[in-house]
Amino acid sequence: MNLARQIEQYLPQQLLELAKDISGQAAKQEQRIYLVGGVVRDLLLGYPNFDLDLVVEGDAVKLAQQVAETSKAKLLAHHRFGTAKLRYENFTLDLATARKETYDRPGALPAVTPGTLKDDLIRRDFSINAMAISLAANDYGELVDPHQGKNDLEHRLIRILHPRSFSDDATRILRGIRYEQRLGFELEAQTARLLKRDIPMLDTISGDRIRHELELIFKEKQPELVIRRLAALGVLPRISPSLKGDGWIAEKFDKARRLKKPNQLPSLYFCLLIYSFSERGIEQFLARLNISAKLSRAMRDTLRLKTKLALLDTSPLKPSEIYYLLREYEPLAIQANAIASESSTIHRSLQLFLTKLRYVRTALNGEELKRLGISAGPEMGRVLQILHKAKLDGEVRTRADEKKLALSLSRKL
Ligand code: ATP
Ligand code: MG
Asked: What does the pLDDT average to over 309-319?
């Protein structure tokens, strides 16, 4: 099957010209290059995907170095892995030397040696991700599909390439469900059976790799579908016994999307994911996934604030009272609680803090207060605090109001 027409139709002209140029340079060195992975899958599905992954039968680093010399691209080479990234103004191209992989033991990083395109495709996760398109002049656009990926795309199936796939690399369990839910596909029967059998192999995967897969799930349009399915299959408890993927998660993730920009969502999803956790549960989760200090702080704060929410639900609070209650918590934790809480009073107070109170500053600064005769030190600190509180509560609005209040305070001091 030839996909030259689809390539020309779907890929931006600029990218195509580049790919052709690289292919020409490869040919001079008797190397061949192919488009591989996600872009081929999405091309066949008619979905946009401009993350071009190229496989080189030969030496990707050498080829990328040459391309970089003759173009404006910035080169980032990893000699050890035989991979290179060419960064252009508007996009990047990933080049990888075709490789052969063997796994010494489950979950370990594979031993890698240079190989053919076929070697490179059989090491991949699923048949729909194991197709390539030739970019060489003599068979430009030809589909290379040794594992019947196109057939599986047509039948909407996620299929592994060999029975040891999930035990070699159990992150594929998470990847498989992510693709299944993103594309609305199904696990092929044997794949589903082996996936369930190999769930315990997740224990062989490092925290960093599990976390990375969760981050990828959180970049999906509807991560709650993936989480729900992982729960139904019994995958979640293997990562952490407290993890749930119920309707609550679905509702709150959806609410999060309506409030936050996409790049802030993954961290917020993490905070919502652990909302029902015990203190022990969260510590176990943070350690298992090797979560960064910053995100750990926000996740711990989320649970700490949860236990204080009732204080916000009592008699009407002054803005300054809300401020003093909330200022010690990470904004992300406050946001998570605003989404999680069922009380509209609490929600309003938390949002008021996030959108207004935390930004309130006095108009007068220390220098100006000195000119009003207030001396630096504890006295000044006290005046500034009173001014700030009055400003929070709307008792002073203008600069003049603040000046008046400061003068009356200084007389009393
Ligand atoms: P996405 O649209 O999610 O980016 P993708 O197919 O481009 O999908 P990547 O994570 O960018 O996925 O990986 C590129 C390719 O590398 C995949 O298509 C797959 O062939 C291969 N791959 C990635 N991770 C694994 C893995 N754990 N095991 C085997 N092959 C993998
Ligand atoms: Mg990709």
From this structure: 89
**Does the beta carbon of 124 sit less than 6 angstroms from any atom of ligand 1?**
yes
Residue 172 Cβ < 6 Å to ligand 1: yes
| Alpha carbon of 51 to ligand 2 centroid (Å) | 6
Ligand nearest, relative to CA of residue 39: 1
Any atom of ligand 1 within 6 Å of the Cβ of 94: no
Q: How far apart are CA 312 and CA 322, in angstroms?
A: 7
The tens digit of pLDDT for each residue in 368-408 reads 888 888 888 888 899 999 999 999 999 999 999 999 999 88
- This prediction has a pTM of 0.91
Residues 177, 230: contact at Cβ < 8 Å? yes
Nearest atom (ligand 1) to Cα of 49: 2
Closest CA to 280 of 241, 234, 316: 241
Q: Which residues contact 224 (CB under 8 A, 6 or more apart)?
A: 245, 249, 250, 253, 254
Give the distance, in angstroms, between the CA of residue 95 and the centroid of all CA atoms in the same chain: 23
C-alpha of residue 55 to centroid of ligand 2, in Å: 13
In contact, 13 and 88? CB cutoff 8 Å: no
Assess whether the C-beta atom of 110 lies below 6 angstroms from ligand 1. Answer: no
Ligand 1 contact via 53 beta carbon (within 6 Å): yes
Q: Is the CB of 191 under 6 A from ligand 1?
A: no
3-state secondary structure (DSSP) of residue 124: coil
- What is the predicted pLDDT for the residue at 70? 84
The number of CA neighbours under 13 Å toward the Cβ of 248 is 12
- C-alpha angle with apex 36: 32 to 39, nearest 5 degrees? 135
Neighbouring residues of 190: CB distance < 8 A, sequence distance ≥ 6: 159, 163
Atom 14 in ligand 1: which residue has the minimum CA distance? 37
**H/E element, 101:** strand 99-102
- Under a CB-based contact definition with an 8 Å cutoff, are residues 361 and 396 in contact? no
